[in-house]
Amino acid sequence: MTRVLAVVGAALVLAASGWFAWWLLGDGVRATAGVGPAEGVVRVTECHDGDDGDGRKTGYECAGTFAPATGAERPIVLADARARYPRGTTVPVRLAWGEAYETSAREAAAVILIACAVASPGVLTAVWLLASARSGEPAEYDGLVMLGAALPLGLAAIAAVVR
Predict the structure, then answer these.
(1) Whose CA is closest to 144, among 157, 131, 158?
(2) Per-residue pLDDT tens for 67-99?
(3) Contacts for 137 with CB less than 8 Å, ≥ 6 apart
(4) Which pLDDT value is given to residue 31?
(5) How far apart are CA 113 and CA 32, in angstroms?
(6) Residue 90: HSE in the Cβ half-sphere, 13 Å Cα cutoff
(7) SS (H, E, C) 1-15
(8) What is the pLDDT of residue 163?
(9) DSSP result, 15-46
């Protein structure tokens, strides 16, 4: 019975951590990966070099007017634009977190890595539960603690480099 509870617990922990990562970052994954049709276009009014607040260049940010497929136009920021677009350029975009995003494999990879870092504590807990279910008693977890500390930090560092 203990083994069954461990397997069920592992499944629940995996489901919960996957749901939480998707709830937190799913819009960003969908927008940057280009899942589904574009939600509209941004008509660019200005572009400038973007920075991260500490003065490090992060690419381009463009301001413009978002014209959705249906509804009224409104001002919006095109975050992490691929290029410094000339005024009047229309760019197909998807929305996430109140900003417009172009399809970008690099940005999608960064957001997916961050989602993996968010989900990793749940995954490691599920691994421990499954290891305990296999042996029938609580598994040694010293290695999992080290992996649990290193994995999210490593994934976040890789995401920062990719981005």
Answers:
(1) 131
(2) 988 878 899 988 788 888 999 999 898 888 888
(3) none
(4) 85
(5) 13
(6) 8
(7) CHHHHHHHHHHHHHH
(8) 59
(9) HHHHHHHHHHHHHHHHHHHT-SS--EEEEEEE
CA distance 93 to 75: 14
Phi/psi for 103 (5° steps) reads -70, 130
Q: Which two tokens stand for residue 84?
A: 């410094």
Which of 127, 95, 114 lies closest to 31 in space, CA to CA? 95
Q: Which pair of structure tokens corresponds to residue 122? A: 């749940």
For the record, the structure tokens of 133 come out as: 């279910």
| CB distance 80 to 101 below 8 Å | yes
Q: CB of 61 within 8 A of CB of 81? A: yes
Residue 127 CA to residue 112 CA, distance in Å, equals: 21
Q: What is the pTM of this model?
A: 0.70
Residues 155, 163: Cα–Cα separation, whole Å: 12
pLDDT at 142: 65
